[in-house]
From TrEMBL:
This is Phosphoribosylamine--glycine ligase. Belongs to the GARS family. InterPro entries: ATP-grasp (IPR011761), ATP_grasp_subdomain_1 (IPR013815), PreATP-grasp_dom_sf (IPR016185), PRibGlycinamid_synth_ATP-grasp (IPR020561), PRibGlycinamide_synth (IPR000115), PRibGlycinamide_synth_C-dom (IPR020560), PRibGlycinamide_synth_C_sf (IPR037123), PRibGlycinamide_synth_CS (IPR020559). Keywords: ATP-binding, Ligase, Nucleotide-binding, Purine biosynthesis. The lineage of its organism: Bacteria, Bacillati, Actinomycetota, Actinomycetes, Micrococcales. The gene is purD. GO terms for molecular function: ATP binding; metal ion binding; phosphoribosylamine-glycine ligase activity.
C-alpha cells in the first residue's frame, strides 16, 4: 500500500517504522533523518493543505496519515479528502476537539462525558474569580494548540494568573477569541488511551502512561512528554471498557450528531480520580511519546488498521492483537528545554544504542549538518524505545540504549516507569 505520512517528529518516525514493517511503500513529508530509513522524505510544508493534497496525488497515495495536530487544525485532512484519497485524521471541524479546550468541554457536556469542572474565562478578573472558586492546586489551560506545554498546574496563585495572562495575550495577538480554561484539579494517576474511529465505530488501543514534567519526580515545567510505558498493570481491569462506554463512543456519537464525524485517532487523556474516571483532555491525533510504546506492542498490521478507520470499515477489521511484551520509551532532550532549547549539538552513539537487543531509536528534533553528521534541531531530540518480557526488562533495555547516546548537556529523566516497576502506582477510591 502506498502511504503518505505527514509530520517530522518521533511520533511520525514510529508510525513510519511500523507501517514499513507491515510492508507499506512510504513517503514521509517532511520527515527527518530517521524516517529516511523507512521510505522517501519529501520537503513539503506539513501545514499547507494544498501542498499536502498535491503531493498525495502526485505519488498516487492510497492512504494519507496525518501525524501532528497543527496540520489537522489547518485543514490538511479536508484538502486530501477533497481530492478523493482516504485520510487517517479528522477534518478541521472535528479537530477542534483538540484545537479548542472550550469546544471540547462543550462536546463533553452534551455527550455527558465525565470531566473536570471548568470555567472558560475571557478576562483576568474572570480568571481570578475562577481560581478562587476552585482553590489550589490551580489548573490553567491555554484554549488553543500549545504542543503539550499549554497547561500550568501550580499552588502559586500569581504564577497561575501570569500563565492565564500569557494565554489571553497570545489569543488576542492571533486575532481569535481570547479565552483561557480554568479547571478543578484532578487527583490520581493519568492514563492515555488511543481509540481508532471511522466516524461511527471505535476501536481501542492499549493504555499507556506518559511523563510530562522535565525532571525526575515529576518536577519542573511541563514538556511535550519525556517518556512513556505500557502495559499498566495497576489500572482497573475494566478501564478500556469504561473509556469506550463513557468517553470515546459518546464523544464520537456527539460529533457525528453535529455533522462533523471524527475519523482518525481520538486520544483520551484521563485521570483515575477518587471520584472515578475523568477526562483531562482530548487530542485529535496519536500522542507523543505514548505512540512509541503502544505501537511497539501492536501485532495487527498498522496499515490495515489505519486504512480501515479511514475508509469506514473498522467493523470488518475486528479486534486488534497485541504482544505480551512491555515497552518503555525514554526521551533525550536538548539543554535548556522546554524554556529555551539550545540546538546544534552533535549527537553520537545512535548505532550503538540500536545494537541493544530489543531497542530502537526514533528521531524527533534531529538534522544532518553540512558534513552529514547528526545534530540536535529541536527540543526533544530522540525517543529510545526498549521492549522486554516484563516492565523491568523493557526499562533496563531502554536505559541501556539511551546511555549509549551522547549529546552535550542533553536531558534524560531517570525515573520513567520506575514507580510502576516497583508497584507503587495506586488508584484512589472507587472507579465507578
Amino acid at each position: 500500500m502506498k502511504i503518505l505520512v505527514v509530520g517530522s517528529g518521533a511520533r511520525e518516525h514510529a508510525l513510519a517504522r511500523h507501517l514499513a514493517l507491515a510492508g507499506a511503500d512510504l513517503v514521509i513529508a517532511p520527515g527527518n533523518p530517521g524516517t529516511a530509513a523507512c521510505g522517501e522524505n519529501r520537503a513539503v510544508d506539513a501545514n499547507d493543505p494544498a501542498a499536502v493534497a498535491a503531493l498525495a496525488r502526485e505519488i498516487d497515495a492510497e492512504l494519507v496519515v496525518v501525524g501532528p495536530e497543527a496540520p489537522l487544525v489547518a485543514g490538511v485532512a479536508d484538502a486530501v479528502r477533497a481530492v478523493g484519497i482516504p485520510v487517517f485524521g479528522p477534518d478541521a471541524a472535528a479537530a477542534r476537539l483538540e484545537g479548542s479546550k472550550a469546544f471540547a468541554k462543550d462536546v463533553m457536556a452534551a455527550a455527558e462525558v465525565p470531566t473536570a469542572l471548568a470555567h472558560v474565562c475571557t478576562t483576568q478578573a474572570e480568571v481570578a474569580d475562577a481560581l478562587d472558586a476552585f482553590g489550589p492546586p490551580y489548573v490553567v489551560k491555554d484554549d488553543g494548540l500549545a504542543a503539550g506545554k499549554g497547561v500550568v498546574v501550580t499552588d502559586d496563585r500569581e504564577a497561575a494568573l501570569a500563565h492565564a495572562a500569557d494565554c489571553l495575550a497570545k489569543a488576542v495577538g492571533a486575532h481569535v477569541v481570547n479565552q483561557v480554561v480554568i479547571e478543578e484539579f484532578l487527583d490520581g494517576p493519568e492514563v492515555s488511551l488511543f481509540c481508532l474511529s471511522d466516524g461511527v465505530d471505535v476501536l481501542p488501543l492499549a493504555p499507556a502512561q506518559d511523563f510530562k514534567r522535565i525532571f525526575d519526580g515529576d518536577a519542573g515545567p511541563n514538556t511535550g512528554g519525556m517518556g512513556a510505558y505500557t502495559p499498566l498493570a495497576w489500572a482497573p481491569d475494566d478501564l478500556t471498557e469504561q473509556v469506550l462506554e463513557r468517553v470515546a463512543r459518546p464523544t464520537v456519537a456527539e460529533l457525528a450528531r453535529r455533522g462533523t464525524p471524527f475519523v482518525g485517532l481520538l486520544y483520551c487523556g484521563l485521570a483515575l480520580t477518587s471520584r472515578g474516571l475523568r477526562v483531562i483532555e482530548f487530542n485529535a491525533r496519536f500522542g507523543d511519546p505514548e505512540t512509541q510504546v503502544v505501537l511497539a506492542r501492536l501485532a495487527t498490521p498498522l496499515d490495515r488498521a489505519l486504512h480501515a478507520a479511514a475508509t469506514g470499515s473498522l467493523e470488518e477489521l475486528g479486534g486488534l492483537h497485541w504482544t505480551d511484551d512491555a515497552a518503555v520509551t525514554v526521551v533525550l532532550a536538548t539543554p535548556g528545554y522546554p524554556e529555551q532549547a539550545r540546538t546544534g549539538g552533535a549527537i553520537t552513539g545512535v548505532e550503538d544504542a540500536e545494537a541493544v537487543d530489543g531497542a530502537w531509536v526514533l528521531h524527533a528534533g534531529t538534522a544532518l549538518d553540512d558534513d552529514g553528521h547528526l545534530v540536535a534541531a529541536g527540543g526533544r531530540v530522540l525517543s529510545v524505545v526498549g521492549t522486554g518480557a516484563t516492565l523491568a526488562e523493557a526499562r533496563a533495555v531502554a536505559y541501556d540504549a539511551a546511555g549509549r547516546i551522547s549529546l552535550e548537556g542533553g536531558q534524560v529523566r531517570t525515573d520513567i516507569a520506575l514507580r510502576a516497576e516497583r508497584g507503587e502506582v495506586t488508584v484512589p477510591g472507587p472507579q465507578a
